[in-house]
Amino acid sequence: MQHYLIVGCGDIGNRVGKILLEQGAQVTATAKTEERASELQEKGFSTVVGNFDYQEDAPKLPCSGKQVFYFMPPQGGGKSDYRMLNFCRQLSPENTPKKLVYISTSGVYGDCGGEVVTEDRPINPQTARAMRRASAENQLMEQAEKLGFELVILRVTGIYGPGRLPVARIVQGHPVLLPEDASFTNRIHAFDLVQVCLAAMERGEHGDIFNVCDGQESSMTDYFLAVADLYALERPKQISMAQAEKVMNPLMLSYQKESRRMSNRKMLDKLNITLQFPTLQDGLKVCREEE
């Protein structure tokens, strides 16, 4: 029986784990609270409860020989990922995973001025949130080199799917940029991300890095307008970048100031991926049906 460990079992981890359980694998998942652990146990997961924010609270994880999915996001502040540090502190020659797949972010590339971005492009994180992800990547690369386990990194774009749409922001009246000011952004449907994670564990090789997106070029404005239309909501007000700098949420503004067109060619070819939802229109229809 194959044994998997999922560190950070939220929406994506739950979907990945469910498929593995259906295949007859044993799956252990981390949970921050006993309540969350009970929910996972009811679905067939084994669980380890603990908080990775502090070294003394981090649970002891049995990693030896296991295939590990690391889906836990960094903590909310700083430029280093301290949750990853507390995970890596547990790794040793006696507690080394067989293989680890890590979900990172395309944000590590920084602002690329709308250029097409392949995995060969050097990273250039420009925001604290991207720096935390780059920190996590570097920590794992160092551990993989030292301990000899296989490491595959997925640089994932904006995830959308059932329960992950910006409906609340639209209802609350948050503005979007005018089309001429909006930068290129990229997305991946949650269901497609799940199949990419599984394929990366099965077919990815040590040192592989994959850009994960659907390949459709659009903007955040296009995305919000499409979601508003899907739910028959009033379309968000459109404002200029100059106006956005005065009124837009700083986190959202930071996304708007970075422009990238991600290439997914390596992901499609090497992982043999056929996307279920290669366009936003296809994916949004299913989101509404699922909800």
UniProtKB/TrEMBL annotation:
Residue ranges of domain RCK N-terminal in the record: 4-53
Signal peptide bounds: none
A GO term, aspect molecular function: aldehyde dehydrogenase (NAD+) activity
Domain NAD-dependent epimerase/dehydratase: 83-213
A Pfam family it matches: Epimerase
Cellular component terms (Gene Ontology): cytoplasm
Biological-process GO terms, alphabetical: potassium ion transport
PANTHER family, per the entry: NAD(P)-BINDING DOMAIN-CONTAINING PROTEIN-RELATED, PROTEIN YEEZ
Protein name: Nucleoside-diphosphate-sugar epimerase
Organism: Malonomonas rubra DSM 5091
